[in-house]
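Shipment paperwork, digital attachment
Item: protein structure file
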Amino acid sequence: MPCPSRFNLSSYVLSKARETPDKIALAILGPARAERWSYARLEDAVARAAGGLVAAGLTPGDRLMLRLGNSARFPIAYLGAIRAGIVPIPTSAAFTKREITVISQTLPPDAVLAEEGIALPDAPCPVLSPDVLDGAPLGPHDSAADDLAYIVFTSGSSGRPKPVAHAHRAVWARRMMWEGWYGLRPDDRLMHTGAFNWTYTLGTGLLDPWAMGATALVPAPGTAPESLALLAKRHDATILAGSPGIFRKLLHGPLPPMPKLRHALSAGEALPPSLRTRWQAATGTDIHEALGMSEVSTFLSGSPARPAPEGTTGYPQKGRRVKVNDMVSDGCLAIHGSDPGLMLGYINGRSIDLPLRDGWFQTSDRVEEAEDGAFRYLGRADDVLTAGGFRIAPLEIEHVFDAHKDVTDCAALTVHPNPETTILALAYCGPASEDQLKEHARPLLAHHKHPRAYLRMERLPRGANGKLNRAALRAAVKDLI
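Attachment content:
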């Protein structure tokens, strides 16, 4: 079913408030008790946020940068802005003043909504207090499905982060994930382990459950990773979502039984096959992985109805048009320009540009397609390692060593022991010795894929969402060579 032509993302997401006003939409899980928001209370807070932002002088089309912490205030401000036709720019509270200033220079906001203690950009615009969110309730702005609704930034893995413009229809396109990835039902209690201001949490953990009429569960700020499984048990979570790093941490210790859990969801970075296998053995449930990007959300995934074959990410979600583009890229995925979830484009000043080649948007995600249509993810094209004349995908190496019982985390990279030499290396955490790792690699990797250096580290540099920072890793290992 196509998205209605007149469509407001915020109004759509909270439409269940009119059907089930007293049902719990959101529970923030603390160590002692949960903070609960009914659908009616949540919709009222969003309507008041919309009215307060307008009363503060913002008008439809204005850009509002969100500098808010990990609380319900974040999605309320986000949906409140969209309800009023204002364009929110969600940003991580972890950004430093320098980082958020770079972003504001790339995309100058008309105002910043900020909590005390969170770094502000050097930007010539008003800074609003969260107190403005308690205004008079305002009805939804009359928006078109193709109107600009919100702006997010790419992770910057290939350089400077790019501002990505999304239409209101983007949330409607997420319905393809309900069956194609989540197996989501109205009676589900979906627990997302990330922070509110991570777009993965915002979409998978909040907006999609609310649009379905389910209950979203989010751990309170500061919750230790080892407590997450116990919270999932106590609050009857039926779906658990997070990054591979979260599942790796959960498997470090004994897991309590989670009798209501049907399955888990993984995204943010590639899920090692061995991690999925260990989770299946420990819990009796599966982890369904999804591949996506800021420009189009997820598009490949396994699901309860069609689990991904071992060693693959999964299949194109029903309604997606994707292909492997060998003619203009090294086996990278392309997404058709008609995909309703595809961005409006990258923002350059006040213009928006959607780069298409013959009607297709080219990604940097390298894949292999199996005969049954499943895709195996090989990493980003810009992450490909070159050593000894060979081009090697780091994931090929990482998946092998991640399966070693004494490796808790690892990443493949190239290093330069001298200006004329480039070798393959493995940075890893855990008690495994170099000899053990060499023996482990011998039957599993071609000789040219064997690391020539093994660099043990206390931890690998990962962001707040658990995603590996490969640029920071390259800088961190310089003293270990």
